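As a warm-up, study this chain.
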Amino acid sequence: MTILSQLNGPAVYAVCGGIVAFVAVVCVVFMVRAWRAGVALGMDKAKMRRVITSSVTFTVLPSVGILLGVIALSGSLGTPWPWLRLSVVGALHYETQVAQAAAEQVGMSSLSAAEMTPRAFTTIALLMSVCIMWGMLLSTLFSKRYLKKLGGGGGTKGGGAAGFGDRAMTAMFIGLICAYLGSYIGAFVSGGQFPFNGDWSPLAVAGVSALTMAGCVYLSEKKGMAWVESFSIAGSMLVGMAAAVLLRLWV
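Now compare it with the structure written out below.
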């Protein structure tokens, strides 16, 4: 039995599926309680139904990006584990990055089923879990104090918690982008002799994805099409993946 068949086994599906089902039940409970609270407050039921319908509509397409992440990781980690990670607590950019980094640290040249071993999977799964748990722990310990700072109005001109949070998140994403682009540029420069014969396709795909995201931001902010923002990440990923396929076919 191969490692991938074990990772897709009934026992793994039962464990991961049970956790996902529990979270889904909790979501339904909160949705029912929110509906009852709205009715108790005298809110219009027709408007509440329209809110639910619009929320569902604007949730489906952005979740395509998450589905793509599950598909991308399932080829090496099996389907249940990526499904659990990206359904409950994980984030697409985090899961793929940490999984790849962990695979490299255990001696794998890439995150692939051909090189996967039980020890490698255990290390990758443990690292993916441990690295993201701190957000939940820190929120439990310090969120009350943080919310008090937000309520105090320090996040406007005074550069308080809200302003710092926005800047920190922006800095983090810029750092991630620079790290990825740096690795792509390094592979391109070191892949051949001058004038550089390395693999330039990741740079081209990154450029296409960035242009797609820029177009979505332009339509959302300059043309008043706010709904485009909900589909920007999934759309950029789909266009980038299509560009990668076309480049591999043509080059």
